[in-house]
Design a protein that fits this description.
By secondary structure, the protein is mostly helical. It has 15 helices and no strands.
Length: 270
């Protein structure tokens, strides 16, 4: 009993978080955490997997719980979440929230959560979760993505300087893991990376063309602006020929970008 409490305390301090933050992730009071750490009580047995997941520890450190199983189960949750990302944001959010009930505090799931919360306009929760995540995660990619999403939330709330401050924490990188995997891996691993990167890249390119076009339009350069909008429309229309790879997605880029298509039509006066 006492050794488990000491281990929880050691892991919490190593992760540099307070009893309150840890308790909030688990859905218990900080007094309960204090009692565990002091050896006065034991966590309920149903809490053990969640505690192990939160600290990303091995089976040797917290009872008989396999870290490999955690990673495999989290990957499965993220795959399920990804299927709904384009077609049903509310469903994607629910998949992640259900996953966090089993693995509270998991960095990957929390990063997915703030991503979908941002899409749903829940900016206050994005910032709250994001702040905790950037302070506690051991994974640089998760931290940088959290800063990106927080910057979007700050901008949406009109807090421009805070958005700039968050962006300053993000390094400039000109390649992605998916892109490298698509070029260098083989067979199904190559194909999955290529499909995912294709959709991300297309969506991002459409967004950049709209952003550039709006800026040009605001500065009175209407001909240049319209060229950007027309290119974006051509990209969207090109994906009309695409198919849904149901292992990874629920809709095509063409289906997912119909609201942007309407926006582009309005910008072009159609």
């Amino acid at each position: 009993m006492i050794k488990l409490g000491e281990k929880i305390k050691s892991l919490r301090k190593e992760k540099n978080i307070s009893q309150e933050i840890f308790a909030n992730y688990l859905g218990v009071s900080f007094q309960a955490v204090s009692k565990w750490e002091n050896g006065n009580t034991m966590p309920d047995v149903t809490m053990i997997p969640a505690i192990a997941s939160f600290f990303s520890v091995s089976t040797d450190e917290l009872f008989d719980f396999n870290l490999y199983e955690i990673e495999k189960n989290v990957d499965a949750i993220v795959d399920e979440y990804s299927k709904y990302w384009y077609a049903d944001k509310a469903k994607a959010e629910q998949v992640i929230r259900d996953g966090l009930k089993k693995y509270p505090g998991n960095d990957i799931l929390l990063n997915c959560l703030i991503g979908v919360l941002s899409e749903l306009g829940k900016n206050d929760e994005v910032i709250t979760v994001g702040k905790a995540l950037v302070e506690s995660t051991k994974h640089d990619d998760v931290r940088f993505d959290a800063y990106r999403i927080m910057a979007e939330a700050y901008k949406a709330k009109g807090e421009y300087q805070l958005a700039k401050d968050a962006i300053e924490h993000i390094p400039e990188i000109y390649f992605s893991k998916l892109g490298v995997a698509a070029h260098l891996l083989e067979d199904d691993e190559m194909y999955e990376a290529a499909q995912k990167h294709k959709n991300i890249s297309a969506e991002d390119l459409i967004d950049m063309l709209i952003i550039a076009g709006k800026h040009l339009k605001d500065n009175g350069e209407n001909e240049k602006a319209d060229s950007q909008f027309r290119i974006a429309l051509k990209i969207i229309d090109a994906f009309k020929e695409d198919f849904v790879e149901t292992k990874y997605f629920k809709s095509t880029i063409y289906e997912y970008t119909q609201e942007q298509r309407k926006e582009l039509g309005a910008l072009l006066g159609e």
